[in-house]
Structure formats: C-alpha cells, structure tokens
Amino acid sequence: AGVNTLYINDAGEVYYNFTADCAGFQFIVEGATASGGSGGAAVSAGFTVSAGGSTVLGFSFGGAVVPAGSGILTTLSLTGTPTGLSDITLSDSNAENLHDLTSTDLCVSP
After folding, report:
1. What is the pTM of this model?
2. Residues in a beta bridge with 84
3. Is the N or C terminus of the chain more exposed, i.e. has fewer CB atoms within 10 Å?
4. CA dihedral (74, 15, 58, 11) positive or negative
5. Is residue 21 exposed (0-12), middle (13-18) or buried (19+ Cβ within 10 Å)?
6. What is the rounded CA–CA span in Å between residue 22 and residue 96?
7. What is the pLDDT along the chain (110 residues), one digit of tens a residue?
8. DSSP one-letter string for 61-90
C-alpha cells in the first residue's frame, strides 16, 4: 500500500496511510455516488465530512488534524459499487500538498 493516500473498499470504508498529520481531504468516488460520511479517524478528530454526488470533502472548522498513522478515515454511505478513488487531494495544516498518489483502485480483501 502506498503512503499519504486513500483507498476504498466495496463497503464504503475509506482507509488512510499518512506519514504526517492531515488537515483536510477531498476525493472523487469512482463508480458510486456518496451521500455522507460517518465514523473513523476523521470524525474522531472533529472533522466535518460532506459528500455530494461522487465528491467527498473533509476538514475541521477548528483546525484539528487526523494524526499520522493508518486506519479507517471515514465510512461513506454509497449508492452503487465503488471501483476506486480519483482526484485525491490531502493537505497539512499549512495547506501544503500531502498526497503521494492521486488515484487508487478498489481495495479488496485477499
């Protein structure tokens, strides 16, 4: 798995692997429509996770960050089956680029 990027499984769980704190994210869900996000490290950090169509956006009005590490970032409510993520944008607290990969394929269990 790559670092400083996101992956999605067919249940709508978005996984992250960050080497630095993340202050915001945006991405497009390929193959599905998202209507919201809940749980995971984003909500634990106080982020607002919004979804409209295939675009998902997450950030904190208070300047909180998702700490470096890995796990479930958020779980999306989806219509359809996702095939991956594209246009992945991650930023740190200084609005600097944090992402290494801008698109990923569907994450499947072995």
Report:
1. 0.92
2. 30, 105
3. C
4. negative
5. middle
6. 10
7. 577 889 999 999 999 999 999 999 999 999 999 999 999 999 999 999 999 999 999 999 999 999 999 999 999 999 999 999 999 999 999 988 887 778 778 876 55
8. TT---BPSEEEEEEEEEEEEEEEEEEEEEE
